[in-house]
Structures are given as structure tokens and as C-alpha cells.
Design a protein that fits this description.
The chain is an all-alpha fold. It is about 80% helix and about 0% strand. The chain contains 26 helices and no strands.
Amino acid sequence: MFDETDILQRGIALAEKHDYDQAIERFTEALRLNPKYTEAYYSRGNAYEAKGQYDNAIADYNEVLRYSAREPAAYYNRGSAHARKGDRIQAIADYDQAIRLKPDYAKAYYNRGFAYFKEGKFERAVTDYTAAIEHDPNDADAFVARGLVRAVEGDVDQAVTDYDRAIAIAPDHAKAHGNRGNAFEKKGELAAAVAEYSEVIRISKKDAKAYANRALAFFKQDQLDKAIADYTEAIRFQPKNAKYHISRGLAYAKKRLTDKAVADFTEAIRLEPRLVEAYVSRGIARAARGDREGAVDDHSKAIELDPGYTKAYYNRAQAYSLMGQLDRALADYTKLLEIAPDDSRAYCHRGVVFTRKKDFELAVADFGTSIELDPAYSRPHYNRGLVRIVQGDPQNAATDFSRAIELDPNYGIAYYNRGVAYQQLGEKALAAQDFARAKQLGACR
């Protein structure tokens, strides 16, 4: 006949084979023989936790602590179960106890650091990860975790240093390479980022995220064919990831392969019918191929899904404007400005619509507001100059064109129209100079 120790060992062997149900039966059998058998409670708690039955696991760890109140591993495991339930406050309390009982408990520092990170308490997270490293200097994961917190805080250089140390310990640490790639990308070192993502792919050839990350780095360098190839690989490994389809669609759109872009955005919508970004992206692509009604439909759907999505109002307003539906365009720009009252470009574009409707005073007012919000934006200066020409105010028109040219010295059409203003002012020599400059820039009729 087996005693509780034999039964416990049979349960442990089953748990090692991931046969948790049978393992739990053995541990329960052992506890029937010895209700105070803490090792059986502990092992059954681990099996429950592996099955995702966190309340049962916590109950068993409680029993361990009832009979052995100074057992740091029980606090640690109970903390992990609380963390997996999403109760980070209780998890932290348990890790506190584990560390109090065992001050060199590296894993407890690591897990408490992660809980603090999820709580947004970054300074405490760094402190705990540092303690984990002090007590276990060869834990590459702790360096990676500390690096991530530092990257989130904006200290990218220190993050890279941590990833370097993790890779020195574990050269094939995929997450360390991936995170270092993210850090290089933030620093604008795109070639270095590509090299890191390539390392992740070397280590884990089916890592869809690594392909997508490398694709984005290629996209930022205008290496669009490489970006498309990598997004295609990412989709091959995760065909139901709608965002990968959107990203590949954007690369196709940038190559002016509009039909392929629309196909990708459509597939993204099929996968996630409420994904606003997919409708907006498809709307832009449809507008690019002249399907303005399709563009309006897509942006309308985006607005239905997210009434505060300003980009959808902006793009739909542009489509309405191109269709000559000026009142609808005005309504969209006005709604956009209710949501984002500091949007300089929206005021500028609404001013253009007012100009087309010959509401010149309203146009001038919008261009003026656009300039107040962003004095370095050349377009509203130019547009206001055009309106002032129509209003018979060439002096102020010339001033506006001059400011547009100051902001953008190659603004050819601004030279041309300032020449027109100078002509009206009788400044023939200045007008001739501006017409000559406009011709050099390819803007002269």
C-alpha cells in the first residue's frame, strides 16, 4: 500500500508531464491520508495555477501558510496566482512578505517589479528589477524587464545598455533583441533596428511580430518592397491579424498599388468589422483612385464607429469638397474643430471651402486663426493672400505672400501671386523679379 509520500511523488511525476487533472487527484488523495501535508497543498496549488484555476491555487497556498507561516515560496506562489487573476495589489503584498522572509529572493523582486510596472509605478519597478539583478546577476530576463521600463520612461540609451547586458548573458534571447530593435527604432537608427529584428527572426523563424517590426523599419526607410515582403510573412504566420493587413495595405498605397491596398484594407475589415483604422485607410485609398463616393462611405462608417475620430471628418470633408458638396465639407470641418479646436490645418482647409463659396470674410477669419495656432504654417498665409487679391487689397496680399515665401523659399506659386500683387501696386520691377523666380521654380504660367 502506498503512503502519502509515494502518492505525492506520483502526482509530481504526472504534473511534470502536464497531466494536471490526474496530478490533482493524486495530491488530493495524499491529503486525505494526511490533511496537514503542506507539500501536497503546495503541489496541488501549483497544478491548479497551471490550469488557470487561480482561486483553488490560492486556497491551497493559504493552507500551506496555515501550517507553515514563514514559507517564502508559498507567499511568492500565492502572489503569482493573485497577479494572474489581475489582483496586483494583493500580489505585491504577498511578494513583500516573501522578500521580508527571504531578502535575497530574486524572483520575488522580479515579479513585484512586473506588478509595479503594470500599475504604472515605474520607479519602483526599476528598483525591484535592480534588486533582482543584484541577487541574480545572470538573469537576462531581469535586464530585459528593466530595459523595457527605462524605454517606456524615455531613457532609451539606458534601455539599450540593459538589452546589451541581457544579450551578453543570453545571446539568443529573442525578446532582448526585439526590444533593442524597438529602442534603436525610437532613436531613429533604422538600419540597427532591422539588424535586431533579423536576429529575432533567425532565433524564431515563425515570429510574426518580428517580421512586422522589421517591415515597419523598412517602411520608414521607403524600402517598400522589403516592407511588403515582411508583412506578407507576418500575415502567413498570423493570417487573422487585421493590423498586419492594414500595414501592408499602407505600403501598397505608398507604391500607388491602390487596388492591392484596397484589397488588404477590405480583408482587415472582414477580420475586424469594427476596426476604424481599416475604414479610414480604405477610404483614403478609394479617394486616391477616384472613388470619392466610396471614400465618403468608408469615412462615414469610421465616424459611426468612433464619432470623435477627427481624421475621418477631415478626409470625408476633403472628399465632399472634391465632389463639390461644399456645405457638407463645411459641416465636417466644423465638427472636427468642435472636437479639436486647436487644429490649424482644419481651419486652413475650412477657409478654402469658404473661399470657394465666396464667403471671403469667413475665409480670412479662418486663415487668420490657422496662422495664430501655427505661425510657421505657410499655406494659410498664401491662401489669405489670394483672398485679399480678390478683395482688392494687394498691399496686404503681398505681405501674406511674402510671409509664405519666408516660411517656404521654394513656394513657386506664392512668388507668382506676389508678382500679381506687385503689378496691381505698380511695382513693376518687383513683379518682374517674382515672375522670373516663379518661372525658375516651375510655377509660372
